[in-house]
Amino acid sequence: MTSTSRPTTVAAVVPHPIQHFAPLYRAVGEGPVDLRVLFLSRAGLDRYFDRGFGAEMHWRPDITEGYQHEFVADLPLRPEWRQPVAGTRAAGRVWTALDRRGPDCVLVHGYRHVGSLAALAWARRRGVGALMMGDSELLGHRTSRVRAAKRLALPPLLGRVDAFLTVGDNNEDYLAHYGVPRERMFRTPYPTEQAALHKALTDRAAHRAAVRAELGIAPDAVVALCVGKMISRKRPLDVADALRIVARAPRRPDARELVVIMAGDGVLRPALDAAAAGLDGALRVVGFADQERLPRLYAASDLYVHPAQRDPHPLAVKDAVLCGLPVVVSDRVGSIGPTDDVRPGRNARIHPVGDVGALAGILDELRRRPDLLATMALESEKAVPDIDLDASIDGFHRAVAAVRRSERPR
C-alpha cells in the first residue's frame, strides 16, 4: 500500500466494542495494515440494561479477540458519557494514546462521540490522515433548526476528513449533500457476523424443517422473518395490522399460508403477544434470538420484513440479503439503493412507512407468487459480492491507500 515495506499503521478510535465490526478488524489486521483499535468504553462486554430490548444484555466476550486493541478510557453508557468532565478526560486519553502509537492514519466512527472529535483534532494537529465511517442519511425528519445547524457545522468538520468509508447509496448522498466530493468516498459495506450465516445456510433444508416443526408451521407455508427491538420506531405492530388485512381478504386458490416469525423483545412485546393470540398462528413471537439461533431463523424463512419508521442501515436487512432472502421494507430504511442491500424492483419491495394496506398487499402477492419470490431471491444472491466482508475489506484498503497517497507532510 506504500512505497516502503513498512505496514501502514491505523488507529481506530471507537466508542465501545461492537460485535459486527470484529470480523473487519480481524481481517484487515491480517493484511498490509497494522490496525490498533482504541476503545473508550467496555459497554457491551459487561452486562448492561438495554432499554430498547427491556432486558440485560452483553456481547460475546470474543468480540475483542483476534485483533490488537486497548481500552484507553472507561466511559459509561450514554447519556452519562456526555458529562463535560468525563468527556474532557476521555479526549485527553485519546490524544495520549495516539501520541504513543503515532499512527499513519486515524479512523473514527461518525462525528458525534467525544472520542471521534478528539481523534480528528489530533490528526489535524499532527498532519495525519483521517478516515470516517458512518451511516447518516437524509431520509429521517429533521427540524429546520437542526438542518440549519448541520448546514453550518458539517461542511467544515467533514472537510477535515481525508476519506470516507461509506456504507451505501443513501449514506453517500448524505455526504455529498454536505459538500464531500464523491472521489473521497470508498464503499465499505457494514461488516457483519457472516460466517455464522454461511454455516447455517450449508444445512438450510435441515434448519428449515427443524424450525418449522418447533413452531408448528406447515412445510409449504410462506414464512416471513422480522428481527429487531420491539419499539415504536421499528413499527412491528404494522406487521400484525397487515396480517389482519391479509386474513380478512378472500383466500385465493393459489395463496399459500403466510406466517411471520418475529424475533426480538422490547416494550411492545405484550401488545405483539396479544396480537399474535388473535391471528390464529399467522404471527409467531419468539422473543430475543441470540447469535446461535438467529442464523437458523434466516435459513428457515422465505423473505424478510422491516417496516421501520427510520433505520439508517439495519444489519438485520443485510443479513437477510446475505442469506439470499427477498426483502420488504418501508421507504425510510436507509439501505435502499441500486447498489445497496435493498434494490427496488429486484430483490426488494418498498412500501410507504405506516401504510399497512400497502404492506399487506405486498405480502399477499408474494405468498401467491412463488416464481416472484424465487426471482427476488436470485437477485439477493447476486447482490452478495457487493455487500459481503470481502467488499468491506476492499473498501477499507482502498480508503487507507488513498489517504497515504495524498497525505500532507507531518
UniProtKB/TrEMBL annotation:
<keyword id="KW-0328">Glycosyltransferase</keyword>
<dbReference type="GO" id="GO:0016758">
    <property type="term" value="F:hexosyltransferase activity"/>
</dbReference>
<dbReference type="Pfam" id="PF13579">
    <property type="entry name" value="Glyco_trans_4_4"/>
</dbReference>
<dbReference type="InterPro" id="IPR050194">
    <property type="entry name" value="Glycosyltransferase_grp1"/>
</dbReference>
<dbReference type="Pfam" id="PF13692">
    <property type="entry name" value="Glyco_trans_1_4"/>
</dbReference>
<dbReference type="InterPro" id="IPR028098">
    <property type="entry name" value="Glyco_trans_4-like_N"/>
</dbReference>
<feature type="domain" description="Glycosyltransferase subfamily 4-like N-terminal">
    <location>
        <begin position="71"/>
        <end position="190"/>
    </location>
</feature>
<dbReference type="GO" id="GO:1901137">
    <property type="term" value="P:carbohydrate derivative biosynthetic process"/>
</dbReference>
<protein>
    <submittedName>
        <fullName>Glycosyl transferase</fullName>
    </submittedName>
</protein>
<keyword id="KW-0808">Transferase</keyword>
